[in-house]
Amino acid sequence: MSQKQARSCHRGFTLLELLISITIFALILVALTSGLHFAGRAWDQQQQRDVRQGDVNAVQNVLRHMIASGRKFEGDQVTLKFVGTLPAALERGGLFDIKLALAEDRLVLSWQPHFKGPTIPSGQNKADLLKGVAGLDVGYYVAENGWQTVLDGKSKPAELVSIGLRFDDGRVWPDLVAAPMIREDSSKD
Known about the structure:
This protein has helices at residues 3-9, 15-68, and strands spanning 71-75, 79-84, 96-103, 106-113, 125-131, 133-142, 146-148, 160-167, 176-178. By secondary structure, it is α+β, with helices and mostly antiparallel strands. Strand 1 and strand 2 (79-84) form a beta hairpin.
């Protein structure tokens, strides 16, 4: 074996080849790290969306049950008032004056015991149902007049109540349409 052949066998990598391979390896690591970071953020955002959607579904179910058992509906396009029962989770029996309204960016449910007479009812309770709400649209369906945006005590009872919400982030919940099941004369309580 000649000296030239011996040198070429033990030659190894040149500095330029080593720099190119390190650069390619670094680019591969950056791409992988960015991909993992993107996947993590996408996972977190999807979980947050799922939680928000779960909150919306729970609020819709509670409101649907409350409206279905309610009576004496009044309100306008941004406020709904009625007499009804509270959800079982609140462990409060009896009838309550219930109000659903928008307060700043929150959907607020307030209630107080329903009394008729000289007794002064106790204080009003409030609960924030949803945050980040940009708009509330309440509609009332009366058979003779169709959908209305105002329902007062002099109007015929609503056969359907519709609640629509718009959120700050552009989401819109599917309109909640519920039929009050209890129909009574306005002279009764």
